[in-house]
């Protein structure tokens, strides 16, 4: 393993030396050009040059040309610190206390919010109907989602067919409609659809 590391470091050193050597040779070659030849070079030639090398080349082939000085790097004031700096300055005990407190606040918030949100959602979904079906809304259609409404068939229907459309047991459907004959559902009769998932109020 040690031999492998030494071989790797040696190769990295050689690659860096070759790159530095190539860079020096390129700079020397560019310094021998005229300004017109230098300007005709493709853009990818300048990509391998540093700002200092570029200024050195221009100063050599066109000493009268003055390149603008690069803007100074802005330094952050010493009194401006990041959150990471503040956190790293705290002891492990304080960090642990802060994390524990944050987790506790989140857990308490969830414990309070979830039941309230669930109750609000269920209350909006829960069907509440008066005991008397006279004021119930009319069912738009018969489906597995139809509930808490009355349906007026336009023709005689069988209990099995209606129960199949509603995806509910025929006996459960008939229990809510004992005012209808057990043989069939007459045309224009009031068919009550109630799945006992809601509440009946007086």
Summarize the structure.
The protein is mainly α and about 200 residues long. It has helices at about 1-30, 35-40, 45, 50-60, 85-90, 90-125, 160-165, 170-175, and strands at about 130, 150, 190-195, 200.
Q: What does the model show?
A:
This protein is mainly alpha-helical and 202 residues long. Among the domains are: 8-61, no CATH class; 128-201, no CATH class. 52% of the residues lie in helices and 6% in strands. The chain is built from eight helices and four strands. The strands form two sheets. It has a two-stranded parallel sheet.
What attributes characterize this protein structure?
202 residues; 4 strands; mainly alpha; two-stranded parallel sheet; two-stranded antiparallel ribbon; elongated
Gross geometry: elongated
Mean pLDDT: 76
Helix content: 40-55%
What fraction of residues sit in β-strands?
5-15%
Number of helices: 8
Order of helices and strands: HHHHHHEEHHEE
- Low-pLDDT regions: 120-124
Instruction: Give a count of the beta strands, DSSP E runs of length 2 or more.
Output: 4
Strand ordering within the main sheet: 1-4
Distance N to C terminus: 86 Å
Topology (elements, then pairings):
Layout: H1 2-31, H2 35-39, H3 43-47, H4 51-61, H5 83-89, H6 92-125, E1 128-130, E2 149-151, H7 159-166, H8 170-175, E3 191-193, E4 199-201
Parallel strand pairs: 1-4
Antiparallel strand pairs: 2-3
